[in-house]
# Entry
Amino acid sequence: MKQFNLTIQTPGRGYYLITDRIEQAVAEALPGVEVGLLHVFLRHSSAGLTINENADPTVREDFKRFEEHLVPRDFPFHHDYEGDDDMPAHIKSSLMGCQLNIPVSDGRLALGTWQGVFLCEHRDRAHQRHLVLTLQD
# Structure
């Protein structure tokens, strides 16, 4: 088992395809894994992770629009210490989740043809997001 750290700078709210960054972070160990599992953990409570369609960018736009509809900022939240995007970001993070398990086959992430890993930034301003990648073989 090997573990890697990955830091990703986000420019603010949005869905960012990070599959290549994850593959680069584990590149030294991935080729030696015939069958395994990569656990991806995001160390934050106001961002999330998802695996979804990676070819058409309108999917990401639709995700953003839907999440704003599902968790509106004008809901009367009590927790707003860091602004009106604070509590909605925490709820969205819980709904999306902060971890993924990705199978590894023959030294590659076994994602589907149109699948990619996305970091979902739910805060308006830029953030450094820290991930822990644990590769089990």
